[in-house]
Amino acid sequence: MLMTSFSSSKTFFQNPQKPVSIRATIMHRNAKGSPLHDPNATVEEIIEKDFQISKERAKYYYRKSSPKSTESIQADTEILEGSFIMKFKIGTPAIDTYGYIDTGSALSWVQCAPCMECYEQWGTIYNRKRSSSYISIPWGHQMCSDVAIGGSVEDVRGDCGYTLTYIDKSQSFGILGVETFTFQEGYEVTDVLFGCSDFSIRDDYSPPALIGLGDLRASLVWQLSISQFYYYVEHSEESTNMIGHIHLGVPVLDPLFSIPLLPNRDTFYYLPLESITVAGERLVLSEIVIDSGATYSVLVKDIYDGLVRAISNAMGGPLADYKGNCYGNIRKAPAIVFEFKNRKISICQSNVWYRMGSVYCLAFRESPVKGRSIFGMYQQRNMRVAYDLESGHVSMTYMHDTCPSME
How far apart are CA 157 and CA 136, in angstroms? Predict the structure, then answer.
C-alpha cells in the first residue's frame, strides 16, 4: 500500500508552478475520438439524448438554486450527465482517465477502487491505495466543508466523507483527498482536492470522472489560484462530432465584448440576458445559466413559445413529419439576437439549427422547469468563451468574421 500520510502543514488550493497555463482538448461525448463514442447510435438518438441531458441539467440547476420550491421535479437520469469530456492522468504512477468538464459543478471527482458500487467504465479504474501521491483529507480540516464543495460532509472513520446529491436524490459519495493530476503536454499539478468516489450509479457507460469548473473554492479553477479560463468549440458539419479545447490560466477576456456575471448564488454562472429578438419580436428575460455541460440551449416556456412562433411566422410553419421544429430549408430564417447587459450577440444560423438528413431543425427546446434557462455549448460554437472570475465577467467572441455556412 503506497498511500501517503496526511501532513497538517500542507497548503491546498495553491499551485506552486507559476504561471499556470493548462491546455487540453475537449470533445463531445459521442465524437469519433471519444471513449464514449457509440458507432451504432443514430444521429437522431444522439441529439435526443443531448436534449434530454440539457433538460435534466435545467432541473438540477432549478432545484439547487430553489431548495424551498414546492414544485415536483422528477429526474430521468441518475448521476448528472454532461456533454464534453477531457482526458487527463491521475496518481503516481499516473493512469489515463477522462471526465466531463462542468461549469455547473465545483468538486472534481473520480471513480475509485475499491468500489462499494460503481458503474462500468472504459479503461483502468483509479485505485488510491496504489498511488504514492494520494492523501486523504481528515475530518475537521478547513477544506472538509459543505460550503466549499457544494455538497455535504461527514466523519468517515476519521476521514472527510463527502456526498453529492442529484435531482432524483441519487448520490455520489466517497472520501475527500488530494492527488496529482497530469494534463495535456505533461503539465503536472500536485495536491488537487477531489472526491474519491466509491459509490456511484449510472445506467450506461459514462466518464469515470468529472472536472468541476464552477464558482466555489473546491473547483479546479480556484485551486489553481487562477482567475481566467476559456474554451472554444469548433464548428463541425456533424453536430454530434464537436471538438475544441480549453485553456486554464490564460488571460484572454476581451473587455470590448465582456458581459458582467450576476452575483454568485450557488456554484453556477448566471448571465444577465435581458431579451431575445427574433423577426422583430422582443422576448424579455432576466437571466440565463451559461453551461459547459449542456449541449443545447433550453428556454423557459413563454420565451421558447415566442421564439418558435416568431420563426414559424417568418418561415411559413414547420414540417409536420419531424420531431421538433424542422424546415426544408432555412433561407428565410430570421436572425436571432441575444441581448445581454452591455453586449448583443447575433447567433450564427449554424448555431441555431442542426441538420437531420435533408432538413434543418431548431437547436433549442423548452425548459422543463419555470425560471431556468440554459445557454448550451452548441450555441457557443465558434466562440472563444472566456471567464474572468476576479472581475466577474464573461466574454464571448466569434473566432471568424463570417458564420459557417450550413448549405
Answer: 11
Beta strand pairing status for 336-340 and 326-327? unpaired
Residues 298/358, Cβ–Cβ less than 8 Å = no
Instruction: Cell numbers for 368, please give them.
Output: 422543463
Q: What is the spatial distance between Cα 66 and Cα 240, in angstroms, rounded to a whole number?
A: 32
Angle at 112 between CA 170 and CA 4, to 5 degrees: 130
Lowest mean pLDDT among 49-58, 71-80, 140-149: 71-80
The HSE-up count of residue 340 (CA atoms within 13 Å, CB side) is: 23
Could you tell me which residues come within 8 angstroms of residue 11 by beta carbon, excluding any fewer than 6 positions away?
191
Q: Which amino acid, one-letter code, is at 18?
A: K
Asked whether 197 and 210 are in contact (CB, 8 A), the reply is no
pLDDT of residue 16: 45
Strand partners, 375: 290
Task: Please state, in angstroms and rounded to a whole number, the distance separating the CA atoms of residues 365 and 326.
Answer: 12
Average pLDDT for 151-165: 89
Number of Cβ atoms within 10 Å of the Cβ of 270: 20
Q: How confident is the model at residue 289 (pLDDT cuts 50, 70, 90)?
A: very high
Phi, psi of 65 (to 5 degrees): -90, -10
Produce one character per residue of 174-187: b if its CB has 16 or more CB atoms within 10 Å, e if not: bbbbbbbbbbeeeb
